[in-house]
Amino acid sequence: MTWYDVYAIFQGAVFTVSISLASIVIGLPLGLGFALIRWSSVPVLDRFVVVYVSVIRASPAVTLALLIFFALPVVGISLGAVTAAVVTLTLSTAAFNTEIWRGALMSFPREQLESARAFGMTRGLRFRRIVFPQLVHSALPALVNEMTLQVKSSPAIAVLGLVDITRAASRVGARTYDPLPPFVVALVLYSLIVAVFVMTQRLIERRRAAEMEALR
Amino acid sequence: MNGFTIVWDNRDVLLSGFANTIALSAIAAVVSLVLGALLAMALMARSKAARIGATVYVDAMRCVPFLLLAYLIYYGLPSFGIRMSNWTSGLIALIVYNVAYMAELLRAAWANLPKESIEAGHAFGFHGLKLVRRIILPPVFFAAVPMIGNQTIQIIKDSAFLTIIAVAELTQAAMAIQTTYFVPFASFVAAIALYWITCMAIETGVAFVGRVAKARQ
Amino acid sequence: MTPPMDDAEAPVVLAAHGVSKSFGANTVLTDMELTVRKGETVCLLGPSGSGKSTFLRCLNWLEEPDAGFIVLKGQRIGIRPSGNIVMNDRELAAIRTRIGMVFQHFALWPHLTVLENVMEAPIHVQRRDKAEVRREAEALLQRVGIADKAGQYPARLSGGQKQRVGIARALAMKPDLLLFDEPTSALDPELVGEVLAVMKDLAREGMTMVVVTHEMAFARDVASRVVFLDQGRIVESGAPEEFFTRPKTDRARQFLLRYSAQ
Ligand SMILES: Nc1ncnc2c1ncn2[C@@H]1O[C@H](COP(=O)(O)OP(=O)(O)OP(=O)(O)O)[C@@H](O)[C@H]1O
Ligand SMILES: [Mg+2]
């Protein structure tokens, strides 16, 4: 194995993380939207969200990716492998985010909404200025935790034949007839990336603990 | 759509994959729960060395992606002269990975246990392993039932990754049917339905055990 | 003041000598002395934060004193007879089985039924015969008036019932003495009586007890001796009628005044 191989694996890692970050960026607001649908009990749609969350929560990313990539063309929607990967990961993370946002919404003090109304704020303004910042604050630790899990599970997209971290390592292994070293490199590289997320999560948790301490 | 008819005709393929998924997940869940309890003991130990060692392991597993770990074990064990089937090396990967998660959730439940009842254990002459086994772990398990249920669902989902190292589990079976008959929609929908039913069953079980546990907390 | 003859002759069950304890810079106990004779009920009184709980926990070494020593029937607790080596967990555990403890918040084991709570330590720590322990446990539950709840889990009981189970659990060990840390202060007022009644019976039957309490009426009527603590020191010690009618120090007087005002 050469330095060039390490570089190839690194590129694979960057690719996987990029796809994963794209899904996180789309999945956050999408989850919030779904959560709002449930929270405000939009008829029919909210049942839809319940089923979606329940099914996705039970679906392995690998299986979901295969379904989206191979099955959507059957109903006339043909997605490239990259798009299929982003869609899979987005659908998956958005389902978990829905539950996190919904939890934050449900624990939101109702009087605050009412007091905002008393000041004559419109619905949209009320949400943007009063509810949303606090929602982010209370949901953040769980959201970052979900991001970490998302980044960890995104090598699943290897089943779509993309040259992500997994396939990059496989290729090197196939060429050198020694698959172990490239997978060690891949594992260490990718774990370091995940570690950044884990450390961010710890930092937030520690700050929160300090805030709680200050409040007591 | 006659895709589902084809899947139905090949139900033995799907069901044997499903059986493998269940077997892998069930064994992995039980073993990683038991080993996780031991690791949780190390996380809560008085000895600093034990605590540090256990924490390093748990933290490492929080960072390692399961799929790459599965590959590493799959390719790595033979180079130590250990030959085993894909199935077994997949199972080992599931256990190695999930022990850390089980340990961490048990540790959290342990840390939240009321201090007084553990103290009562000391006052009544319990110590060491017997204190942990008889006084601490039972309420820890009861308190952790919902988290253990969630982690079991996670194990089932992790097991689908093993399709990539060619373990004949549910997703692999669905893939096999799809490549033979080109019925991707029906075969993957069927697989996901089976995953979903399993999760529902686990959640129902958790709710039931949760009721039993609630009386004992 | 001379103690009654029979008390002076009764053998010493537990003695604490020069016990001191601090948490960091906070000195909680200074040079505590206490002798408990067989059949005595010693009540520890004192304002909140005076170190009563800490002292009680030092008696069975749940808290390790910084200085001084504790002797149970001639055997030193915590320190090996050979010298200043602290006992290991197993040795401490063996001694603790001889000292029963009743907790402020009951501290029952939530995963065990009432009967199992009582049987747990005799069977698994003392390794006594299961059938015999069961018979005794049932008799104890009868005695504290809670036999009908034997199969229930603690979560289903009222505070008073929990505390009576706590007492039965401690008695099942056949301890040399019982320690109580404010056994009624977590109870609703109407449930205090049922627990105190059980304790009163125990005192009458000659159980040796050390009781931390804020129940002045109980201390006055039941205690063979009261010990008054303030800021981690024993300020006064003597017969209850003496202490309650003619306290010798200002601090005790203030303390009693506050209670009689309530
Ligand atoms: N584990 C501990 N760590 C630090 N300080 C402690 C600890 N336990 C007790 N203390 C301190 O020791 C002092 C005495 O506490 P203790 O609980 O013995 O008082 P007490 O007389 O039982 O009071 P109360 O009537 O409120 O129960 C207090 O200042 C308390 O803050
Ligand atoms: Mg106290």
From TrEMBL, chain A:
Subcellular location: Cell inner membrane; Cell membrane
Topology of the protein relative to the lipid bilayer: Multi-pass membrane protein
InterPro entries the record matches: AA_ABC_transptr_permease_3TM, ArtM/GltK/GlnP/TcyL/YhdX-like, MetI-like, MetI-like_sf
Domain ABC transmembrane type-1, residue spans: 13-198
Family affiliation: Belongs to the binding-protein-dependent transport system permease family. HisMQ subfamily.
PANTHER family attached to this UniProt entry: L-CYSTINE TRANSPORT SYSTEM PERMEASE PROTEIN TCYL, MEMBRANE COMPONENT OF AMINO ACID ABC TRANSPORTER
Name of the protein described by the UniProt record: Amino acid ABC transporter permease
Organism: Jiella avicenniae
UniProtKB/TrEMBL annotation, chain B:
Residue runs in coiled coils: none
One MF annotation (Gene Ontology) recorded for this entry: transmembrane transporter activity
Topology relative to the membrane: Multi-pass membrane protein
Keywords: Amino-acid transport, Cell membrane, Membrane, Transmembrane, Transmembrane helix, Transport
A single GO cellular-component term on record: ATP-binding cassette (ABC) transporter complex
Major location category of this protein: membrane
Stretches that traverse the bilayer: 22-44, 56-77, 89-110, 131-149, 185-209
BP term (GO), one: amino acid transport
One Pfam family recorded for the sequence: BPD_transp_1
Signal peptide residue numbers: none
Intracellular or extracellular location(s): Cell inner membrane; Cell membrane
Residues covered by the ABC transmembrane type-1 domain: 18-206
InterPro entries: AA_ABC_transptr_permease_3TM, ArtM/GltK/GlnP/TcyL/YhdX-like, MetI-like, MetI-like_sf
Family: Belongs to the binding-protein-dependent transport system permease family. HisMQ subfamily.
Name of this protein: Amino acid ABC transporter permease
